[in-house]
Amino acid sequence: MRTKVFWAESEKGKLAERVAEIRNKSSVSLLSGLERAQQELLPPERRRSVQSLAQVPWLSDAVSLRLQLMRAQAAACGPTVPANAPVAAAGQVQLEEYLRPKAFAVIKRAVLQLLEDRDVRMAVLRMFAMAEPEPVEMPGQQAGRKEQNRLPRVLVLGLLPAQEQSVLQEFEDYFDLRFARAGAPGSQLRTLARGSTFVFGMTGFIGHQDERQVRAAAGASYMRIEGGLSSLREALTHTYTTGELPGRGWRAPQPRTAPA
After folding, report:
1. Domain of 160?
2. Residue 228 · residue 255 · CB < 8 Å
3. Is residue 96 domain-shared with residue 177, that is, in the same domain?
4. Going by DSSP bridges, is the β-strand pair 198-202/153-157 parallel, antiparallel, or unpaired?
5. pTM of the entire predicted model
6. For residue 46, what are the CA distances in angstroms to 91, 175, 191?
7. What are phi and psi of 225, to 5 degrees?
8. Worst-scoring range by mean pLDDT, 72-76, 119-123, 142-146, 185-189?
9. Do 42 and 113 have their domain in common?
10. Mean of the per-residue pLDDT values for the chain?
């Protein structure tokens, strides 16, 4: 007798993304798209025979969300200009190319702020990171370009070595991450904090003296993380999507159990 298969959240995310890609190109049903996605993405022992959408109640909303993101992304990038199209005035073309990535960034921020599921948010971040158009420089913008392209520097205080590696692997494309251990010399903590855009302190793993040193040097750029690693991941994701630390009273969303 075959053991019943329950998909993990990561598998559901991959399947929903692939079904959305398929439906974005052809008008197949959700179930047909899911069957094809399973054949492409899952080993035989992880595949399921799905005869009704009632067996996968999460699929419709997940695919719909990804289709909306794909269409918003395509709209922000603009239509392809035919080779024989009339050439617009140079100033108009330059202005449109300058504004396009800014409009793309606005759409990205607005959509991401509506998402609550962290796995979905990170999948969307990867989607935009792969597809975001290169910004077009206006005259006079070349100066300071290297400074603008630098990732925000983030200092995290109080993680264990294995936790540092986990955070680094997940967020190294979005932040210039630095880490400091609890009990480090006060001068070192102050120097690291002053040179960072954002500073996070894991209050469950650092002493009051360490936190006072970092808070005094970082000021408004400091945030206390009262939970564990999952709370830090949520705070980093929020900071990346909004460009600022979570506000007063912010709490990391609690994980929700999705139906099998």
Report:
1. 151-242
2. no
3. no
4. parallel
5. 0.45
6. 55, 35, 50
7. -105, 110
8. 142-146
9. yes
10. 79
